[in-house]
Amino acid sequence: MQRQIFTEEHEAFRETVRTFLTKEVLPHYEQWEKDGIVSRGAWLAAGRQGLLGLAVPEEYGGGGNTDFRYSAVLAEEFTRAGAPGLALGLHNDIIGPYLTGLATDEQKRRWLPGFCSGETITAIAMTEPGAGSDLQAIRTTAEDKGDHWLLNGSKTFISNGILADLVVVVARTTPEGGAKGLSLIVVERGAEGFERGRNLDKIGQKSQDTAELFFNDVRVPKENLLGERDGAFIHLMTNLAQERMGIAVSGIAAAEHLLEITTKYVKEREAFGRPLSKLQHIRFEIAEMATECAVTRTFIDRCIVDHSDGTLDAVHASMAKWWATELQKRAADRCLQLHGGYGYMAEYPVARAFTDGRIQTIYGGTTEIMKEIIGRSLLA
User: Fold this and answer.
1) Which residues, in sequence order, are bridge partners of residue 340?
2) β-strand 166-172 against 148-159: which pairing, if any?
3) Tell me: the pLDDT tens digits for 127-149?
4) Residue 312 DSSP symbol
5) Closest CA relative to residue 209, chosen from 164, 154, 168, 162
6) How much of the chain, in percent, has pLDDT values that exceed 70?
7) H-state helical runs in 201-279
8) CA 129 to CA 257: how far, in whole Å?
């Protein structure tokens, strides 16, 4: 089915992204995978190409365009290229809205130009060793000391944790914490007492630096409070729909790409004297995945348009996230199986897609959390 949500401008942007990937990412990607981190030069190149801060006002160096379809194009092309390590979506679509929507004018002048140029790489620190999806369990504290915040605690599984120059930290600013006692505190690189642990060894997305962060009596200026004091819970809930849509867009794009490369493979690979594609079981597998992708694509594209129009709600974003990522997981497993032994070889794209994509049903809210959100909305 021909997609109908993109204009000529979106497709021109797609070509820009593909050119960037070809010149600035793919030639270096294997080395980044070995290093466990991408180069800062790639972020600067993304800034020069206008791929950072798509929705940031032009006065701060951004694109000034809040049309989410451009972010969808970026996510689709990076997914098809098998290059999740350069986490532009995290920077643009997850952290960007906090800075553009909550920052004061002074904070915007201080942070957004570097955000758009690639000089300032960002991260958001929510997850703790004992608190994942449950924000009520956050133990990191920010104590009001009059002229500064005193930050103590630790975070884990923080994407961009090693490279980040600006970290938005979710911390308790009341003794009880929870929904009414959390705030967003921005910690900048070089702050005394701010330490980074090891670059965590993951099963996939090797080049995407993911770290432990430690805050030991970190003195954070009062002017680094982002948004309302004790208002983080509402701020977080407001931006989660976009985070989940970004993951959903990657999920369906990955499933479609896996189907594409596997369809080509079974046409070329022979068994028992004929191509695998001549076997009925293989044809049924391909038919099932193609149908699942087509149905899912229709729903995701509708959600993309709704989100661009500002009408997508949290429930439908949760539906999109869990459905598309679970499809991606199934497609990766089935496509690897159809590749046989070759699917288990790291040099084959299907093998990397299998390990890189496995996190999709976990971060941004697990599948189980998505179902809980949907269920509560229907059975409240």
Assistant:
1) none
2) unpaired
3) 999 877 777 789 999 999 999 99
4) -
5) 162
6) 100
7) 232-268
8) 34
H or E stretch including 199?
Answer: strand 194-199
Are 76 and 86 a contacting pair, CB within 8 Å? Answer: no
Mean pLDDT across 71-76: 98
Cβ–Cβ < 8 Å for 225, 185: yes
Query: What pLDDT does 380 receive?
Result: 78
Active site residues: 243
Nearest to 364 by CA among 160, 159, 213: 159
**Tokens 């921005």 label which residue?**
186
- The 8-class DSSP code of residue 132 comes to S
Q: What is the pLDDT of residue 88?
A: 97
Among the residues of the chain, which ranges form H helices?
8-20, 29-35, 40-48, 68-80, 88-89, 96-102, 105-117, 232-268, 280-309, 314-338, 349-356, 367-379
Positive or negative: CA dihedral 102, 105, 111, 113: positive
User: How confident is the model at residue 135, as a pLDDT?
Assistant: 77
pTM above 0.90, yes or no: yes
Least confident range of 101-115, 166-180, 195-209, 287-301: 166-180
